[in-house]
Amino acid sequence: MNRHAYWLAAAVVGLAGCAGNPEPVKVPQKKAESGCFLNCEIPVNLGKQYLDGALPGDLVRVERVNSRARADYSKFGPQSRMVMERSGRMASRYGELYRQLSRWVANGGNPAHITQYGISLAQLGGADRMGNVLFTGYYSPVLEVRHRPDAQYKYPIYAMPNCGGRCPSRAEIHRGALANRGLELGYSKSLIDNFLMDVQGSGFVHYGDDDRLQYLGYSGKNGHGYVSIGRVLIDRGEVPKEQMSMKAIKEWANRQPEESVKELVEQNPSYVFFERRPTNDVVGAAGIPLLPMAAVAADKTLLPMGTPILAEVPLLDKAGNWTGKHQLRLLIALDVGGAVKKGHLDLYHGMGEKAGVAAGHYKHFGRVWKLGLHHGPTAAPWL
Fold first, then answer.
1. So what's the pLDDT on residue 370?
2. pLDDT, tens only, 209-256
3. Which residues form a coiled coil (predicted)?
4. So what's the pLDDT on residue 36?
5. What is the mean pLDDT of the chain?
6. In angstroms, rounded to a whole number, what is the distance separating the alpha carbons of residues 253 and 269?
7. What phi and psi values does residue 276 have, to the nearest 5 degrees?
8. Which one is the CATH code of 141-276: 2.40.240.50, 2.40.50.140, 2.70.70.10, 3.40.50.11720?
């Protein structure tokens, strides 16, 4: 999707709304779905609220936003301008909506006044049909690699092969099924870091032999089913389920011999292939560079690419615990994910280890409103 330049007229700044959140509501403990990857146990309180009554659908028409959360809209301007510059199709569909949202933000960004700017609202019902939408997080790792293997940098990252059908499994690839075919994009020194970039689906590599940073984008998969190694570690009693996280997996792997790590990751036969991208922009499925805390992966049957949403994002502390507060943000749906369906959003956190730690903590809930205009291509966002 080619883009052409178009700048929003209004400057967008971060503005605080009314102080305070409602008292947090305690949520009963329950187990997560068996297909989870990292956080395989849902703690008691993950930010669920019960403020709007029953919402009997994926998208429900509402007349107002009932929120007292503080706001930060500062990332919407840069991200929406990126959309306008890069996509003529999305600029045509969403340009006027972005402009009206920018006017609303410039005039205070009070959620109680958003409909005065010609904005229509549809609230996401969430899986519980009470408005609680699951927020997870993702990021772009940075992996140290070399162009050629040596005694330390020996774990290859592969480009997409021509398999003529289903490609080899992870274990078969580890045994050399793709070796010496010119598919190696680089070699890392960490099998578990390769695996975690595989799970993210893209990432940066730093070639230490010529000091070059390269973005590797998703190219395809081998066609085998996905198995959660987090669940495997829990089932084996290696990591307590309440402590399961990306950090816990890495710490476990760093304590183990190479063969134990290889045996674990080979429990997941699915394997992702990569390709070098011409720029170091982190680009989502919509073809638009993603900005941290501004873009989400979403179910495009509910939120087509380019759709702006108003979201109460749960605020976490450094340990990943919900602080009891949410923050209103204007976000744009610019990516998709295989596990991101219906009442689930995956919030992009940025690049590097710090972003990865923050993203790995997210398994919390917030309320979300899909936005449209009263007239035009985005009218009736509940449909």
1. 98
2. 999 999 998 999 999 999 999 999 999 999 998 888 878 899 999 999
3. none
4. 47
5. 88
6. 18
7. -70, 135
8. 2.40.240.50
Which residues, in sequence order, are bridge partners of residue 322?
A: 316
- In the chain, CATH 2.40.40.10 covers 30-139+282-373
Q: What SS3 class is residue 199?
A: helix
Please tell me the distance from the alpha carbon of residue 26 to that of residue 134, in angstroms, as a whole number: 16
Render the burial of 61-86: b for 16+ CB within 10 Å, e for the rest: ebeebebbbbbbbbbbbebbbbbbbb
Say if residue 24 is exposed, middle or buried (CB neighbours under 10 Å; 0-12, 13-18, 19+).
middle
CA distance 343 to 129: 9
Predicted confidence (pLDDT) at residue 43 exceeds the cutoff of 80:
no
Task: Write the DSSP assignment of 234-291 as a string of letters.
Answer: HHTTSS-GGG-SHHHHHHHHHTS-HHHHHHHHTT----EEEEE-SS---B-TTS-B--
The rounded distance, in Å, linking the Cα atoms of 324 and 337 is: 28
Q: b or e along 316-340 (b: 16 or more beta carbons within 10 Å of the residue's beta carbon)?
A: beeebebeebbbbbbbbbbbbbeeb
Average pLDDT on 12-41 reads: 36
The CATH 2.40.240.50 portion of the chain extends over: 141-276
Separation between Cα atoms, residue 190 and residue 17, nearest integer Å:
45
Averaged pLDDT, 112-130: 97
For residue 371, give the nearest of 96, 87, 22, 29 by alpha carbon: 96
Note the CATH architecture for domain 30-139+282-373: Beta Barrel (2.40)
Q: Which amino acid is at 62?
A: V
Alpha-carbon radius of gyration of the chain: 22
